[in-house]
Amino acid sequence: MMPTTPRTAADADACFAGTYAEARKQFLTEATAAGLALQHHAHPLTGAQGEPLAMDVARHGPMTVERLLIVSSACHGVEGHCGSGVQVAALRDPSFLSSARDNRVAVLFIHALNPHGFSHSRRVTHENVDLNRNFQRFDQPLPANHGYAELHDLLLPDHWPPDAANQAAVSGWVAEHGLPRYQAAVSQGQHTHADGLFFGGTAPTWSNQTLRSVLREHGQGARHVAWIDLHTGLGPCGVGERIWAGMNNPQAIARARQWWDNGGATPITSIYDGSSTSALLTGLMWSAIHDECPDAAYTGMALEYGTVPITSVIDALRADHWLHRARQQGRAVGADLAAQIAQSMRDAFYVATTDWHEQVVAQGLQGLHQAIQGLKISA
Ligand SMILES: [Zn+2]
């Protein structure tokens, strides 16, 4: 395996950006410098500073190559500070791009799957939808989440910050049912409360439809697709959990372990057997591969970097959704409180320290190099 750590701490820090606009500029500059072909899918709305928004796609390698590695950022908007940093680090790693070329692997960088959330420091899309719960069959009955229905009013009280009675009621629910059930009820996705948390939507979002068209175009000639989708917000700070992102198929999961688990040092966890810090989820984004590239073999993971404790993450999301609902209802919210809530979202999903940047880049580049080696031997 090639050495995959950035040379200096400053190299790692310089891959990350504090705003969507800066991250986008950095990504496009590096992709252009590396000679990649670029496509821009313009988003219908504008960003937090009035800037244009887009899902940007950069491809390394010709369309005829049969092995395709996808690396994507900002499925969950604000998590893009991290994902964009890993993408920029990969574009600045000449050994990664040359290894891809030499092993006949094309690399597709998808920057900002959900650019609106990235710019506005939200995890959801402009439709208030969790993109990674939005890939359902909407012509069929959607999964029920009774735990969420029980919690919705407690999670989003009339006033923010929540008063003592609300805090006691939430703590009481957690004490009665346990933290894992609280996490699962809140985060597994729901299709009944459009202003709520982890809403999976009732129709495909802009990001869902745009991603599908990208996969159709770039995956059409692929016989094997690998995908690393970059996330944050679960697990110990700075540790990238490698979560299997595909169907419950033992053969494919075994292949992912062979590529990525480093002899068990970085286990491939699964939502199907309880080994992941993530709850069991449905409507996941990877399912689009099977719809849009039905003839390709598939191996994928979510690389999920820890930030702060889960209760802090959920509280930041509660505040964010409270603010969104207040604005939709036309209620006055102080500028200080709004800014504080946006900052708490960034802090929950992005740790802007040199240590964290270095850990994120090292693990991200290692996973990407390993995917090339895996694709090389598998197809
Ligand atoms: Zn995420």
Secondary-structure map with pairings?
Blueprint: H1 9-13, H2 20-33, E1 37-46, E2 52-60, E3 67-72, H3 80-91, H4 94-102, E4 105-111, H5 115-119, H6 146-155, H7 164-177, H8 179-187, H9 206-219, E5 224-237, E6 240-244, H10 250-260, E7 268-269, H11 287-292, E8 297-306, H12 310-328, H13 335-349, H14 354-378
Parallel strand pairs: 3-4, 3-5, 5-8, 6-7
Antiparallel strand pairs: 1-2, 2-4, 6-8
Bound molecules: zinc ion.
Radius of gyration: 20 Å
- Based on DSSP secondary structure assignment, what is the total number of beta strands? 8
Number of helices: 14
How does the major sheet shape up?
8 strands, mixed
User: How many domains, as an integer?
Assistant: 2
Q: What is the CA–CA distance across the termini?
A: 19 Å
Side by side, the strands of the main sheet go 1-2-4-3-5-8-6-7
Class based on secondary structure composition and strand pairing: alpha/beta
Bound ligand species = zinc ion
The gross shape turns out to be globular
Examine the coordinates and then state which fold CATH places here, giving the name of the CATH topology of the largest domain. Answer: Aminopeptidase
β content, as a range?
15-25%
| CATH architecture annotation of the largest domain | 3-Layer(aba) Sandwich
- The CATH superfamily of the largest domain turns out to be Zn peptidases
Order of helices and strands: HHEEEHHEHHHHHEEHEHEHHH
Poorly predicted segments: none
Helicity, as a percent range:
40-55%
Q: Briefly, what CATH class of the largest domain?
A: Alpha Beta
Oligomer: single chain
Mean pLDDT: 96
